[in-house]
Amino acid sequence: EAQVTQNPRYLITVTGKKLTVTCSQNMNHEYMSWYRQDPGLGLRQIYYSMNVEVTDKGDVPEGYKVSRKEKRNFPLILESPSPNQTSLYFCASSGVGGGTEAFFGQGTRLTVV
Amino acid sequence: KQEVTQIPAALSVPEGENLVLNCSFTDSAIYNLQWFRQDPGKGLTSLLLIQSSQREQTSGRLNASLDKSSGRSTLYIAASQPGDSATYLCAVLDYKLSFGAGTTVTVRA
Question: Which of A91, A94, A106, A109 to mutate to test the interface with B (most CBs of B within 10 A)?
Answer without folding.
Answer: A94
